[in-house]
Amino acid sequence: MDRRSIGANAESVAVRAISARGYVVVARNVRSRAGELDIICRDGDAFVFCEVKARQPSSFGVAVEAITAAKRRRLERLAQTYLARIGRRDAAYRLELIAVDLRGGEAERVRIVPLNW
């Protein structure tokens, strides 16, 4: 499986996981000059901006370890820019990581992790 296929598969797994939690997907792969938001959802009145990370078992660690402080700050800016663009600058929102650990190209474990640090 190539990298693009792995990413698309992981995003589909992530959408199923968040839908099972009752989130409503608003948009996927929203791009701007500053970067990309993988999945944007609603959980009640709050927007949820989800970053999807998938990892095969290797020396690079598991998917949940893939978010650095710099990446989290960039996601925060992207979320705020998106909300401003849709005229909802004051809307409640949060960031979440959907970590998909893969084995043989298939999802072995999916974790939804708040990025509130």
What does this structure look like?
- This protein is of the alpha+beta class.
- The chain has one domain (3-114): Trna Endonuclease, Chain: A, domain 1 (3-Layer(aba) Sandwich).
- It is 30% helix and 41% strand.
- The protein contains two helices and five strands, in the order αβββαββ.
- The chain has a five-stranded mixed beta sheet.
- A hairpin with a 2-residue loop joins strand 4 (93-103) and strand 5.
- It is globular and about 45 Å long.
Element pattern in H and E: HEEEHEE
The neighbouring-strand order within the major sheet is 1-2-3-4-5
Name of the CATH first level: Alpha Beta
The whole-angstrom Rg is 14 Å
| Main beta sheet strand tally, sense and closure | 5 strands, mixed
Determine the structural class based on helices, strands and strand pairing: alpha+beta
Which percent range describes the beta-strand content?
Answer: 35-45%
Q: How would the global form be characterised? A: globular
Report how far the terminal alpha carbons are from each other.
33 Å
Q: What's the β-strand tally?
A: 5
Number of domains: 1
Helicity range of the residues?
25-40%
Mean pLDDT metric: 88
Q: State the CATH topology.
A: Trna Endonuclease, Chain: A, domain 1
Quaternary organisation: single chain
Low-confidence stretches: none
Q: What is the number of helices?
A: 2
Instruction: Tell me what the CATH architecture is.
Output: 3-Layer(aba) Sandwich
